[in-house]
Design brief:
Aminopeptidase; globular; alpha+beta; about 30% helix; 5 helices; about 180 residues
């Protein structure tokens, strides 16, 4: 599949993406980011000190970039739907990077991050992506455990990649298509 077909496939998927139900009982869905999701995404980011900090403009640019994809987990358990998590991916040809995944602290350990990863990887695989990479703080044990249980493998380490505090990053890879 040529580069233009891959971009076209992901862009087409983005425009027609129906939400996928995560948990019918909890009325949770994973769907594509919309402009009005920016404020809750930034609130989630602010609540999590280990998360890479982005500006609103960064999310807006990623959402409109044909190689970018932001998914949100939306809970409809309340009267008004609430964004409880999000993930951000960037694709280059047959590879992608997971730039961020986060869930509100009050909604953790419910499978939301796993569902965001799963849906993102499914969409990426449909567009021809073969591998997903990410960096994670070595001390972020809940995230490291999630990624390993999902099937990510250790590829390497980036010394002193993170600041405040200075810390190594683990570089992980998930193979969407086996060779």
């Amino acid at each position: 599949m040529g580069k233009s077909k891959v971009v076209s496939s992901l862009e087409k998927r983005r425009k027609t993406c129906e939400p996928s139900v995560v948990d019918a009982a909890a009325k949770m869905q994973i769907r594509q980011f919309r402009q009005h999701d920016l404020e809750p995404v930034l609130e989630i980011q602010t609540a999590i000190r280990t998360l890479a900090v982005w500006r609103g403009r960064d999310y807006e640019q990623l959402a409109t970039n044909p190689q970018g994809m932001i998914l949100v987990a939306e809970s409809e358990a309340r009267i008004l739907p609430e964004i409880v998590g999000f993930s951000a991916f960037y694709r280059i040809d047959k590879e992608s990077e997971l730039w961020n995944v986060a869930v509100r602290p009050s909604h953790r350990r419910q499978g939301i991050a796993r569902s965001l990863l799963s849906e993102g990887c499914r969409i990426l695989a449909e567009s021809g992506v073969r591998r997903v990479f990410l960096e994670v703080r070595e001390s972020n044990l809940p995230a490291v455990e999630l990624y390993y249980s999902f099937g990510f493998e250790l590829l390497g380490r980036r010394k002193e990649y993170y600041l405040n505090p200075k810390e190594d990053a683990l570089v992980l890879v998930y193979k969407l298509v086996q060779p």
